[in-house]
Amino acid sequence: KPKTKRAKRFLEKREPKLKENTKNAMLIKGGNANLTVTEVLKDIYAVKKPFAVLYKKKNITRPFEDQTSLEFFSKKSDCSLFLFGSHNKKRPNNLIIGSRMFDYHVLDMIELGVEKFVSLKDVKNSKCPEGTKPMLIFAGDMFDVNEEYRRLKSLLIDFFRGPSVPSIRLAGLEYVLHFTALDGKIYMRSYKVLLKKSGCKIPRIELEEMGPSLDLVMRRTHLASDDLYKLSLKQPKALKPKKKKNISHDVFGTTYGRIHMQKQDLSKLQTRKMKGLKKRPAEKSAEDGGASPKKSKSG
Question: Where is the composition biased (Basic residues) (predicted)?
Answer without folding.
Answer: 270-279
